[in-house]
Design a protein that fits this description.
Layout: E1 16-20, E2 33-37, H1 38-47, H2 50-55, H3 60-65, H4 67-76
Helix pairs in contact: 1-4
The structure holds zinc ion (2 copies).
One zinc ion (ZN) binds near residues 6, 8 and 76.
């Protein structure tokens, strides 16, 4: 079994993706990388531009210290590692006998 842990929210048992701490578009192709779970990765790119990431948020510590990320990390830690945002439809499907 491969241990998978997100470097940002520190949850274990998550699927991780590689985040370039300095975005590739900003010359970070050979720079440091971090393994992040999918929600964390999405969150970072939703909140910050590549310029901000390259300039101010190019370490995990800086990201964890960022005000908006702090709130997010608090929230994500309570979520199940296997839960991915998905459409729920079970409640809408009526069962017939
Ligand atoms: Zn995470
Ligand atoms: Zn990324």
């Amino acid at each position: 079994m491969i241990a998978t842990q997100c470097e940002l929210c520190n949850r274990e048992g998550v699927k991780t993706t590689v985040h370039h701490l300095v975005p590739r578009e900003m010359g970070g192709n050979y720079g440091a990388k971090a393994h992040l779970c999918i929600p964390c990765h999405k969150q970072i790119h939703a909140l910050y531009t590549n310029e901000q990431l390259a300039k101010d948020l190019f370490t995990i510590e800086a990201l964890q210290d960022e005000e908006k990320m702090k709130k997010y990390i608090k929230w994500i830690k309570k979520q199940s590692p296997t839960a991915l945002p998905k459409h729920k439809k079970s409640n809408q499907v009526k069962r017939r006998r």
